[in-house]
Structure formats: structure tokens, C-alpha cells
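Predict structure. Input: Branched-chain amino acid ABC transporter substrate-binding protein, 374 residues.
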Amino acid sequence: MKIRITPLAAALGLAAGMLASSAAFADTIKFAVAGPFTGALTQYGEMVKQGVDTAVEQINAKGGVLGKQIEVVVMDDACEPKQGPVVANRVVNEGIGYVVGHVCSGATIAATDIYNDEGVIMISPSATAPAVTEGKNYETIFRTIGRDDQQGPAAAKVIIEQIKPKKVAVLHDKQSYGQGIATAVKNDLEKANIDVVLFEGINAGDSDYSAVITKLKGSGAEFVYYGGYHPEMGLLLRQGAEQNLGITFMGPEGAGNPDINAIAGDAVEGMLVTLPADFTKDEANEALVKAFKDKGRDPGGAFQMTAYSAVQALVAGLEGAGKDDPIAVAEYLHANSVDTPIGTISWNEQGDLKEFKFDVFTWHKDGSKSVFAQ
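Output follows.
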């Protein structure tokens, strides 16, 4: 892919050249980790940071990259779209050229223009909304996870071919990520002539969903798909059980968070969730899984391995470019594949992975999960 240098990027390049003499003596190359480290979704940020920390520790132990150590800088966006640009501007102002994150799609979408305009590489290990990249012609924006128009069909396929309900309710949290994937699932169900009897948004952060539970009971739905995050899914499950709803729920990777067990209690048993394939089961990752566990980290969460892979991609790009230059690194990544724990990955022109696999898992009340089998 030919990188288009905007006037702003050219000006930044000139400024960077003027600072080259001092930058050449920098002891570290900084990688920002942008995501929620406060608020209701902090565990997603911690998943990503565990992956980043594990990768950086291993790379630094082997001498770093380009003769320098990697320094991790944590940036908190609380998973809020309005904080995405705040964090992005902070990254630019601190002279950081590489970002792993953002984590949530809304904050990611809000930050990407700034990164691309300022020549900063961002690789999200978790933001799945197509709108992050679709039609944007970005040069420095990448992902190490699939999109919701891959995840949604994976969920719909299982619903259509294995669960086979006649009537389905589809709920969402009215946000970019949740509504987007819920719509993708709804569209696929309707194409298969499954009756979507309810398509409705709920307000994220509410504590009482009894009204929507009542609607579900009256709709005749045999199955519920929810697009959104684990706090609301947990409440829907618990309050549904309290009203004897008796319907199986399914959600995307945003619902696959161990914290949901504390919210839903025993009602979480049997919830279905789409997640990245369980890369801990790959024999090639045996030593890496041990490295995570030796540090008290969970290698089997939704985003640890994709975050680890994002760091690997940045390092491969730096080594391939042979210099600490985000534009050159982006050019390298667009033109090459990278071997990672999630497989050999490569990107299309807009920075999306050419291939990514989502699986469906059954969630259990002890916090474990198993591959779904009907």
C-alpha cells in the first residue's frame, strides 16, 4: 500500500527531523496502552495491559527493539467516546508514535482521525465495530481482532443452524459497538426467515431492566441476542431469572468478562458468547501461556493474546522498517505478514485483518467457558 503523506504529516515529519538529534539518544521507544482503567469496564483495559506487559517484558529481556527498550505508558479513556480524543491528543503531545488500543469501539472511533492525521500508529486488539475503519482510507490504523460483520455472522450461524429458534428478540445498548453487532445479527436472522419479534435498545448504566424483561416475556421469543457489554448483560440475566424468563441469552465478546458472574450469579450459567478462538489451546503457545501464568496473568481472556500480538506487530514493523518512524512502520505492516500467537496475520488496505476466527462458547457459573456444542 502506498502511504499518502498529508500536509500535516509532512509538517510533522519536518519537525521530527529537527528533533532527530535528541531523539536518537532516547533510551526507550514508548508504546501507549489506551483503554478503560477507570469506570465499569476496567477489566477490559486490564486484559489488554496484561497482554502488552507480557509481550514487552519478553521483548525487552531479549534486548528490546532497534537497540532500545520499550516503555509502556498507560492512558485511561474510561471506555467513553468523549475521552478518546483527549487521550489521542495526549499521546501526540507526549511524542508517542505507537498505541495499543483503544479498547472500546466508541472511544476508538473518536480517536482514530487524530492518530491518522498526526502520523501515530494505533493497533486495536479489541475494537470490533466496522466503523473504526470502514471507508476511512486510514494509513496508520490497524486491528488484531476481527470486525463485528465477522463476529455477528458467526453468532447468527450458530443460532440459525444449531439452536434453530422460531422467534428471537435482539437487544442492544444503543452504542456504536452494541447496536452495530446487534443489527448484524438481526439482519442475518431475518435473511434466514427467523422472526425477530423484538429489536430494542436499553440504556447502558441503568439498574432496572424489568420493563424490557416483561416485553421479552410477552413477545414469545425463544432466544435473546444482546449487543453490548457485561454489566448490562449480567443484569438482564439476573433480572430475567428473577422473573422466571427461562430464555437463553447470547452476546458478543464484550459480554465475555469474568466480572459478569458477580452481577448475574447463577443465572449466567448457559449464556452463550462469541469470543476470539481460544489461542491458549494451541500447542505452539504453551510456553507463552506459562509466561502469563508465571506472572499471575490470565492468558485465556478475550483480549490478552490479541494485545500481545499487537505489540509483536509493532515490533515487527519497527524491525522491518529499520527505524523508529511510524509512517515507515505502517508501510511495512501494510505490505507484510507477522507471525503471532493468534496466527500469521496480515492486513487489508484499511487496516483490518484479512482473516480472523470467532468461536461460540458456553459460559458457566464458575467463570469457566467451553466451546458450544448443541
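The first strand starts at residue 28 and ends at 35.
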